[in-house]
Every structure is written in C-alpha cells, then in structure tokens.
Amino acid sequence: MSDGSKPLPGVLRWNLGDLTVTVLNDGWFQDSAENLVTGIPAADAVGLQKSGHRPSDPRVTLNAFLITGPGRKPLLIDAGYGPLSPVDTLGRVPAALATTGVTPAEIETVLVSHLHPDHIGGLLGDDGKARFPNATLVLHADEAAHWLPDAALAKAPDGAKPYFENARKVISAYEGRVVEHRGGEVAPGIVAVPLPGHTPGHTGFRITSGSRSLLMWTDVVHLPAIQFAKPEAGVGFDVDGDQARETRKRILAEVADNGTLIAGSHLEFPALGYVARDGGGYRFVPELWVSGQQ
After folding, report:
1. Cα–Cα distances in Å, from 131 out to 37, 123, 149, 173, 211?
2. Collapsing DSSP states into helix, strand and coil, what is residue 255?
3. pLDDT class for 91, splitting at 50, 70, 90?
4. I need a labelling partner for 5 at 20 to 30 A (CA). Which of 14, 70, 137, 198 fits?
5. Domains of the chain: which residue ranges?
6. What DSSP line would sit under 160-174, residue for residue?
7. Boundaries of each Metallo-beta-lactamase domain copy (predicted)?
8. How far apart are CA 261 and CA 117, in angstroms?
C-alpha cells in the first residue's frame, strides 16, 4: 500500500517549439511576512496574502527546469536545494528528475542562475560530491566574483557567511568544469539575460525554439501574491534591494507589454504564464495546460 502522506513528485512537461521544458518542483519553505518582505509594511504583505487566499506566513515555492529536445543533450537550469536544505519540505528535484527518464549522468550542462543555496544545493549529492558527474556549470562572472574569492568570505558579515561557504563548497565539487559568462548565448537557443540586484550576477534565460520563446526569469518574483501587485516589495535575501526592485519593475513592464511567456523559480507550480497590467501593479495569468499539448 502506498504512503498517502508522502508527496508525489511535482513534474510537468511543456512544449516550446521543438523543445520540451519540464518543470521540476523542489518543494517549499515558509516564514513570516516580517522576516521575508521588505519595501512595504508587513501588514500590507499579510493583507495581500490573505486576499490571494494564501497563508499570512508566506510559503515560498521552488522550481528547477529541464530542457530537452532532438539532437541535444538534456540541460538543467538550477538544481534545487538538495542536501543543503534546512527543512524536509525541500530537496525534491532528484525524485522529480527520476520520473523524466533522464539520469544525472546524461546532463552535460547546468545553467546556474545564481549561487544562493536553494538553486545550487541540489548540485551536490548526499555524499557532498557532484550529483551530475559529467556536467559543466555555467554562471555569470559577477556571481563568481561576489561569492567565491577568499577575500569575499573573509569580509562577509557572520550571518551571511553560510551563503559564501555553501557557494564555494558546490563550485569546488565541479572544479575544472565551471564556465563564466557575461550574457549572450550560453547553449543552443538559450540566451543569458542578466537581471542584477537579487544577487550581483543573478541571471534569467531566454529560451527560443522556432517561433516560440520563454523567459525563465529566475528570482524576479519570490512571492506572487505580493510582488505582482506591489513590485516595490522585495525579500530579505536580496543582496541589493534597490537594484532588485528596479530590475523587477523593468522586467514586469517589459513582459506585460510584449505578451512574453515567462517562468520563474518561485512562481507557484507549474510556474509558467503571462503578466498583465492591473491598476498600478500587475497580475499573473497562468499558461493553459492541456494533456498532450502542442
């Protein structure tokens, strides 16, 4: 008999031209609005959560993305929290990936959006070694420069040191297999889009196949019930809150005006849709999913 208390893997495939984009849900964590939200009063954040039928203490969901297609090796965008996860509601990407039939050894490229642990912890196995033995990591040069040097760790505030230590631990597991970029094409049909602020080298990825395109914007929005309505709202782990706010406002306006299909690391699963203007803010419009969609 199956254990009904054990969550099933969160996996959903979407067609994008000749490519398949598979959303891999890593789980969720929860914290208070007071701890999570910056830029607006906590009471306003709680009100937006309630009006969105979400708990007052926001749950932040987490996704990674698998890109597959004819004539190309499977590619990952981020890898979830993995063994670095502080809670047992996270770390589900390996189980999700297993349902796709793609093995870790088949993945030769992992596009790293940024070096926060919820995006790179899953690059490690439980043994602390590289989970993807044949993969090259691709990340923005400014991200590497911020988190990896000895001097950066030495001058980091004590509360932030674990972020630096975890980034160094993950990258060291892939020594000799790390490639840095400053935007532009990072894989066939995939262009890196620098989105600085959340971290210095925070990067999204524009994926194009034929006439179809998707912007995976990574961490532009962490709290959908709050930040679409109030783009000025940030999160406490933004490295540069002001720059992150300006990037969010710019990207929201751009994708709303252009009708761009978007995906996000912290949009609620299955995490693909559109942005529409709504009064002085925006709202998220989920993409229509149908079985066997083309």
Report:
1. 33, 5, 23, 9, 34
2. helix
3. very high
4. 14
5. 11-286
6. GHHHHHHHHHHHHHT
7. 61-266
8. 26
**Ordered alpha helix ranges (H), 88-190:** 93-98, 117-120, 141-147, 150-155, 161-173
Pick from 208, 83, 188, 71: which is nearest to 138 by CA? 188
| Residue 72 CB neighbour total at 10 angstroms | 15
Q: Which helix (H) or strand (E) holds 123?
A: none
- pLDDT score of 294 more than 70: no
Using CA atoms, how far apart are residues 230 and 294, in angstroms rounded to an integer? 34
List the alpha helices (DSSP H) in 99-227.
117-120, 141-147, 150-155, 161-173, 224-227
User: Each residue of 159-202: pLDDT tens digit?
Assistant: 999 999 999 999 999 999 999 999 999 999 999 999 999 999 99
Token pair, residue 240, equals: 């540069």
Tell which residue, 96, 177, 86, 67, has the closest CA to residue 132: 177
Query: Under CATH, which architecture does the 11-286 domain have?
Result: 4-Layer Sandwich (3.60)
pLDDT for 7: 87
